[in-house]
Amino acid sequence: MTQLTLQGKTAVLTGASRGIGKAVADALVARGANVVIGDLLDKEGQALVDGYNSTEKRAAYIHSDATRYSDIVALFQLAEKEFGGVDIAVLNAGIISHSNNLFGPFDDVGDEKMMQVNVNSVIKGTKVAVLHMARRGGGVIVSTASMAGLYSSALELAPYTASKHAVVGHTRSFDLLPAVCNVRVNCVCPYWVETDLLTYLKDGETQNPFDTLVTHSPRTKVQTVVEAFITLIEDDTRKGETLLALPDGIKVHDRPTGYQSTAIDPPHVQEYVKTNVAFMKAQLAEALKRYDQA
Ligand SMILES: NC(=O)c1ccc[n+]([C@@H]2O[C@H](COP(=O)([O-])OP(=O)(O)OC[C@H]3O[C@@H](n4cnc5c(N)ncnc54)[C@H](O)[C@@H]3O)[C@@H](O)[C@H]2O)c1
After folding, report:
1. Is 259 among the residues known to form the active site?
2. What's the pLDDT score for residue 87?
3. How is the chain split into domains, by residue range?
4. Alpha-carbon separation of residue 31 from 16, 22, 170, 239, 293 (angstroms)
5. How many CB atoms lie within 10 A of CB 222?
6. Distance from C-alpha of 136 to C-alpha of 48, rounded to nearest angstrom
7. Which of 65, 104, 147, 185 has its CA 20 to 30 A from that of 127?
8. InterPro entries from the entry (predicted)?
9. Is the model more confident about 93 or about 273?
10. Can you tell me the distance from the alpha carbon of 151 to that of 165, in angstroms, rounded to the nearest whole number?
11. How far is the C-alpha of 8 from the C-alpha of 215, rounded, in Å?
12. Number of C-alpha atoms within 13 angstroms, CB side, residue 137?
C-alpha cells in the first residue's frame, strides 16, 4: 500500500457548507490539502472558506447545485483555476425527506427530488471528476452513501433507501476504472450522524413512531465518518470499497457473494474485462477532446 500524501493536493467537495461535508473539509485542510466547496448555502460556505484562508489561500467557494452539469463543471474549473487541478472529489451533497412521504400527495417534482439530488449528483459529479483527474494522471472519488444504502430500512425512508442503494451500486461499477485512468471510486455509509439533515425527518406536525425511532437510535460520531473518508482517500489500495461508519467504529462492507454462479461468469465476461480497458481509454480520449472544446 502507498499512502497518498494530502499536503498540497486539491479536493472538490459538494454539499460541504455544513455537516459531514464541512467536517471532511476541515480534516483535509488540517492535513495540508486545498479545498474547493460547492453548495447552495452560500453564507455558510463562504464563511467556512474565509476561515480556511485566514493565513494563506487554501480554499474557494462557489454557489453550485450538485445536480446541474453547468454548476458542477464550474466547481471543478474553479479548482483548476485556483489550485491547478483536482486530485480528490468528495460527492457528499444529499437530502432526506420528512417521514410522511409514502402517504403524502402525488407530487412529480417533490417525489423525484430525492433521486435527483442523492443519485444524479453522484453520477454527474463522477463523470466530471473523472475527466479532470484523468488529465492529471489519476485521483480518488469518495461519495456519501448511507447504511440505508445497504440494508432495508424504515418504511418512511423508502425513497432515501432507494437513492443510497443506487450510490453503493454506482460505486461498485468502477472496478475497471483504475486501469483506464488511475481513478479510484469508493463510498462511505454512515449510520445516523447528528447533523441538520435529521431535522428534515420531522414533519412538523405530530410526533410519530418514526421520530421516536430516530430519536432513540445510536449516533455515529462525525469524526468516525471523517476517518472513513480519509482512509479511502489516503490508502491507494481502496478501490470500489464501501466503508461503514458505525457508532462503534469503521468496518469494510464486503460485496455480497451469494449470487455467484458459473452461469453468470462465462468466458465472454472475462473477454469483456480483458478488452474493455483499451476500448475505454479510446472513449476517454474522445470525451476529453469534447470537454476541452465545449
Ligand atoms: N446525518 C446522517 O445521519 C447521515 C447518515 C448517512 C448518510 N448521510 C449523508 O451524508 C451527506 C451529508 O449530509 P449531512 O448529514 O451532513 O446533512 P446536511 O444537511 O448538514 O448537509 C448536506 C449539505 O448538502 C447541501 N446540498 C443539498 N442539496 C444540494 C445540492 N443540490 N447542491 C449542492 N449542495 C446541496 C446542503 O446545502 C448541505 O450543506 C448526505 O448525502 C446524507 O444523505 C447523512
Report:
1. no
2. 98
3. 10-260
4. 17, 14, 28, 22, 35
5. 20
6. 27
7. 147
8. NAD(P)-bd_dom_sf, SDR_fam
9. 93
10. 8
11. 41
12. 0
Amino acid in position 173: S
Mutate to test the pocket of ligand 1, among 90, 117, 197 (most ligand atoms within 8 A of CB): 197
Element (H, E) at 80: helix 69-83
107, 152 contact by CB (below 8 A): no
Q: Ligand 1, residue 44: give the atom nearest the CA.
A: 39
pLDDT of residue 203: 66
Question: How many angstroms is it from 95 CA to the middle of ligand 1?
Answer: 5
Distance 266 CA to ligand 1 centre (A): 41
Helices (H), 153-219: 158-171, 177-181, 209-216
Confidence of residue 100 (pLDDT cuts 50, 70, 90): low
Q: Of the residues 160, 191, 259, 272, which is catalytic? A: 160
C-alpha cell at 213: 425511532
Q: How far is the CA of 22 from the centre of ligand 1 (A)?
A: 10
Q: Is the dihedral of CA 117, 123, 128, 129 positive or negative?
A: positive
| Cα 89 to the center of its chain, rounded Å | 8
Ligand 1 neighbours by CB, cut-off 6 Å: 14-15, 17-21, 39-41, 65-67, 92-95, 117, 144, 146, 190, 192-193, 195-198
The CA–CA distances, whole Å, from 207 to 98, 102, 210 equal 12, 17, 8
Going by C-alpha positions, the residue among 184, 172, 92, 169 that lies closest to residue 134 is: 184
Architecture of domain 10-260: 3-Layer(aba) Sandwich (3.40)
User: What is the Cα gyration radius of the chain?
Assistant: 19
Q: Is 59 helix (H, G, I), strand (E, B) or coil?
A: strand
Distance of CA 187 from the midpoint of ligand 1 (Å): 14
